[in-house]
Structure formats: C-alpha cells, structure tokens
Design a protein that fits this description.
Bound molecules: iron/sulfur cluster
Structural class: alpha/beta
Mean pLDDT: 96
Radius of gyration: 15 Å
Largest sheet: 8 strands, mixed
Strand order of the largest sheet: 3-1-2-4-5-6-7-8
Low-confidence stretches: none
Distance between the termini: 41 Å
Number of domains: 1
Shape: globular
Number of helices: 2
Number of strands: 8
Length: 155
C-alpha cells in the first residue's frame, strides 16, 4: 500500500510551478545523509484515488502541479495514480521525485510532465548544485526526457 506522511505547497521543487508535493513513505533507498529519515519508515496514511480527490478539492485552484515525492518501492502504483491525476485534472501537471538513478524497466512516463531522478549523494550535492548526480527532466510528447536541471543552477 502506498502511504504518505504529509504534504505541502512548494515553489522550488519544480521550476515555474506551484506544486502540491506529497511526501511518500516506506522509501527503499538508503541515501547516506538522508534529509528525511522518517520517510524510510512504513508510516502514514494511504494515498489512493479518494485521498487525491479530497486533496484536490482543497488545493486544485491554488496549484499548477501535483508531485509524488518518493514511491520507489511501488513505481507502478505511482504511474497509476499519475494517470488518475492526469485524467481527472487535465490542467494540472504531474511530477515524480524518484531517488533512483534511472526509471524502472518498462516504466511508462506518459502521464508525467516532470521526473526527477537520482538519490542524494552528500559529496555531489543537492539538485541545485552544479556537481549533483540528481537531474530534473521535462517529459516531452514523444516520451523523451529533456534535462532541465540548469533551471536550478543559474548562479
Ligand atoms: S530517496 Fe530521499 S527519503 Fe529516500 S533515503 Fe534517499 S534522501 Fe532519504
């Protein structure tokens, strides 16, 4: 079961978007220096279609993007819920922050506009660092992924 710990409206995770970011728990990655170790625990409330509807009832008019923060243990469930968001809220972009270095084999990215890949490696720095191993991609209509990490790295 996919669960989440909390959510927030954020402005920096996806450039030029106002994003409802859902922090998903039971993260299987074990990044050294993890910024949120509690997200490695199997805690929180179930994130399902009904929960998404209740969140959207409150926030859809205030946001431009819905982002799954985590969910690497069940990527197919993330893809299913992304499809639900895209079909029911077509004006809202869909994003996924994965801690994996690449998409799972056969993963269908068609319901996402943005995907972040890469775990946290302390010495390489976070996404905004020029040396970071993490990258944010914009998914193109043909499914190819354009690296737009430079939008974080303008200094
Ligand atoms: S992916 Fe994020 S939550 Fe998971 S271990 Fe790495 S830093 Fe922590």
């Amino acid at each position: 079961m996919l669960k989440y710990y909390n959510y927030d409206i954020v402005f920096q995770e996806i450039p030029n978007e106002v994003t409802l970011a859902i922090s998903i728990t039971n993260c299987p990655n074990r990044c050294k220096g993890c910024h949120s170790p509690h997200l490695q625990e199997d805690i929180g409330e179930e994130l399902n279609e009904n929960r998404i509807v209740s969140l959207m009832d409150k926030y859809v008019s205030a946001i431009t993007c819905f982002c799954f923060m985590g969910g690497d243990r069940t990527p197919q469930k993330i893809a299913e819920l992304a499809n639900f968001v895209r079909l029911h809220y077509p004006a809202i972009k869909v994003a996924w922050y994965s801690g994996c270095a690449k998409l799972p084999d056969g993963f269908n990215n068609k319901d996402f506009q943005y995907i972040k890949l890469g775990g946290y490696i302390e010495k390489m720095g976070p996404l905004k660092s020029k040396t970071s191993n993490q990258h944010l991609f914009q998914v193109q209509q043909d499914g190819s992924m354009k690296d737009i990490s430079y939008l974080f790295r303008t200094f």
